């Protein structure tokens, strides 16, 4: 009896019977002349252990991943390879090392999905003759040395400080342009300048501080300036 998720490859006198796997259900075999091997067709989860990799920009990293695959041809899995699961596991390790060795550290950290897809494509093309279908590859973790982490943190902090200085300089420039426009507007309207003066006094008076403000009307200053000119 072959279960729903299994297939049986039947050998009769050393030859695969009808070149096709049997099942599921009841399978009849002849004693003494027939032998069979059951193959599980369910998806297999394979954890790739951490691999020490030298990236394209000469940075040593440790990368591990997860591989998902299943057998789609039971006859090929039995007839074409001795141990299909071990072969797929070892091929996944070597392919991970080869592919990641051609990438820089920045690409490895930012383009995990694209790299995982390329690894899946390579594995799928290589294991097709074994009756294996690679359904998914995931890069689980990327570990870099502590010294490199500190260097990357210092670089990121310097970049943020540089951006902050640029933003502050742009703000000062915009503020100076706005003050210039405001001074031009106030110069055209003396009454507006006096109203602005009174508004500033109101703002200062609302604060709880020890500053003493002596309001002096602007028109008095203007009259004094005219008298000085006349004198």
Automatic annotation (TrEMBL):
Keyword Membrane: yes
UniProt keyword list: Membrane
Principal place of residence: membrane
Alphabetized InterPro entries for the sequence: Band-7_stomatin-like, Band_7, Band_7/SPFH_dom_sf, Band_7/stomatin-like_CS, Stomatin_HflK_fam
This protein's record includes keyword Transmembrane: no
GO CC annotation terms, alphabetical: plasma membrane
Band domain sequence ranges: 1-156
UniProt record similarity statement: Belongs to the band 7/mec-2 family.
Protein name: STML3 protein
């Amino acid at each position: 009896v072959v279960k729903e998720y299994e297939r049986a490859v039947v050998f009769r006198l050393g030859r695969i019977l009808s070149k096709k796997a049997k099942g599921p259900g009841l399978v009849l075999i002849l004693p003494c002349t027939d032998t069979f091997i059951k193959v599980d067709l369910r998806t297999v989860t394979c954890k790739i252990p951490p691999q020490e990799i030298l990236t394209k920009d000469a940075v040593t990293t440790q990368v591990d991943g997860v591989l998902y695959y299943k057998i789609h041809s039971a006859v090929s899995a039995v007839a074409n390879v001795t141990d299909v699961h071990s072969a797929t596991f070892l091929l996944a390790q070597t392919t991970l090392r080869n592919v990641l060795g051609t990438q820089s550290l920045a690409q490895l950290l930012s383009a995990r999905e694209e790299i995982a897809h390329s690894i899946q494509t390579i594995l799928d093309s290589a294991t097709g003759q074994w009756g294996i279908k690679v359904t998914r590859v995931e890069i689980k973790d990327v570990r870099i040395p502590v010294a490199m982490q500190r260097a990357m943190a210092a670089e990121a902090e310097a970049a943020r400080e540089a951006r902050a200085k640029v933003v502050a300089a742009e703000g000062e420039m915009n503020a100076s342009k706005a003050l210039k426009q405001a001074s031009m507007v106030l110069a055209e309207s003396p009454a507006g300048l006096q109203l602005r003066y009174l508004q500033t006094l109101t703002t200062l008076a609302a604060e709880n501080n020890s500053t003493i403000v002596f309001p002096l009307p602007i028109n008095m200053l203007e009259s004094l300036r005219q008298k000085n000119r006349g004198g």
